[in-house]
Amino acid sequence: MERLRGKTVLVGVTGSIAAYKAAELVRWLVKCGAGVQVIMTRAAQQFLTPLTLQALSGRPVLTDLFDLGLESEIGHIHAARSVDLVLVAPATANTLAKMACGIADNYLTTVLLAVEAPVVVCPAMNHKMYTHPATQDNLAALRRRGVWIVEPASGPLACGEEGHGRLADLSLILETVCRALTPQTLRGKRVLVSAGPTWEPFDPVRFITNPSSGKMGFALAVEAARRGAHVDLVSGPTALPDPPGLITHHVTTARDMEHVVRMLAHEAHLVIMAAAVSDYRPEEAAPHKFKKDDADLEIRLVRNPDILAGLGKDKKPGQILVGFAAETQDLVRNATEKLHRKNLDLIVANDLTQPGAGFRTDTNVVKVLDRGGGVEEWPCLSKEAIARRLLDRIEALGTT
Ligand code: PMT
């Protein structure tokens, strides 16, 4: 989560049993390179000591609005001014109600009234308290004011009951923080991204595939969602968890991928095909596992559909199509040929012979080619950084 590097996040911890999870949250934020300033309410200190969060954040925890030392410089106003984002996790019904009414009776609620940075709140409480009309009205008021709400999860609650009220998963909270820190330049747009390999079976347990891990495509889908787009990620089989906050469609073969991509491409403003789609498939898949004998085995391969070329043929006016090309020789010539043959706006060419480029790595080395013959050469970057830069480049085309 490079988006968090160098940011200052103020974490407000309030008095819910889920307060202990704030320790893990603070640890993750620090690990991602954020500076973390913690404020705890008096009730939160009943569940977790300030010392724990001080040790994890590396900064004194703010607790007392009337601390003579800190308030000599009007510390709550300084805290509100100096942060990039405020994260209230867990947020109790009581703190949500105070926020909705503008009550400022402790360090956290006072800072929340003074802050201009984005605010993310993560409610956690008994499910009846959560669904109570008062809490729901308060959440609606906060939402209207632009506060980001991370919905609680369902499941067993500390009170012994089951329901909606558990603090959301850490990964969803961190992703929402990244979104709240990202300019919403793709809000209202639909983005379709493909990722991963395809599997082309020749019996129930064997298939032809390639080493794509899905990392490049997933990074693009996540970045587009952070910019506010509605994102559909169509992924071949990978070991990656579904990214939070977008829709992942799982497919296996190239023909499955074609079916789902064609269905979704219809409404997409932007399509990015980062998947490594198998160009060939076995003509037939045997219904049972092949038995070994001494004879050689011959498998006839037939062409798979070229999904991207099909989209290029039926391209909607204003739609942007971006392809990837994985090459081992004549990078620019081969990628340029694909750019024009598939009717693309941009193609991202990875040179698989370069260290740090292509399949499985966390980095990539690419050249970005446009229809006017422009070639941009990018240094070795993380796939997350490539995703950011590529979306900036796409937005600069002006039609998304
Ligand atoms: O998943 P990772 O491990 O992170 O690796 C990333 C990657 C190397 C897979 C990725 O960066 C990449 O280069 N993806 C495209 C690889 C590829 O299949 O290139 P290609 O030159 O065969 O295809 C050109 C374009 O046509 C691609 O956008 C591809 O998705 C598309 N295509 C290809 C064949 C086919 N039958 N249908 C297609 O739509």
Tell me what you see in this structure.
This protein is an alpha/beta fold and 400 residues long. The chain has two domains: 2-180, 3-Layer(aba) Sandwich (Rossmann fold), CATH 3.40.50; 190-395, Rossmann fold (3-Layer(aba) Sandwich), CATH 3.40.50.10300. It has 15 helices and 21 strands. The strands form six sheets. An eight-stranded mixed sheet has the order 12-11-8-13-16-17-19-20, with helices on both faces. The two termini are 25 Å apart. The mean pLDDT is 94. Ligand PMT binds at residues 196, 212-216, 254, 273-277, 279, 304, 306-308, 323-326, 338, 350, 358-360.
Q: Can you tag this structure with a few keywords?
A:
Rossmann fold; binds ligand PMT; alpha/beta; eight-stranded mixed sheet; 2 domains; 400 residues; five-stranded parallel sheet
Summed up, what is this model?
With 400 residues, the protein is of the alpha/beta class. Helices cover 34% and strands 24% of the residues.
Low-confidence stretches: none
Strand adjacency order, main sheet: 12-11-8-13-16-17-19-20
**CATH topology descriptor of the largest domain:** Rossmann fold
| Shape-level CATH architecture of the largest domain | 3-Layer(aba) Sandwich
* Range of helix content: 25-40%
Radius of gyration: 25 Å
The largest pleated sheet is described as:
8 strands, mixed
Q: Provide the CATH top-level class of the largest domain.
A: Alpha Beta
Instruction: Note the gap between the termini.
Output: 25 Å
How would the global form be characterised?
elongated
Mean pLDDT: 94
Q: Tell me the name of the CATH homologous superfamily of the largest domain.
A: CoaB-like
Number of strands: 21
- Class based on secondary structure composition and strand pairing: alpha/beta
> How many domains, as an integer?
2
Number of helices: 15
Ligand inventory: ligand PMT
What is the percentage of strand-forming residues? 15-25%
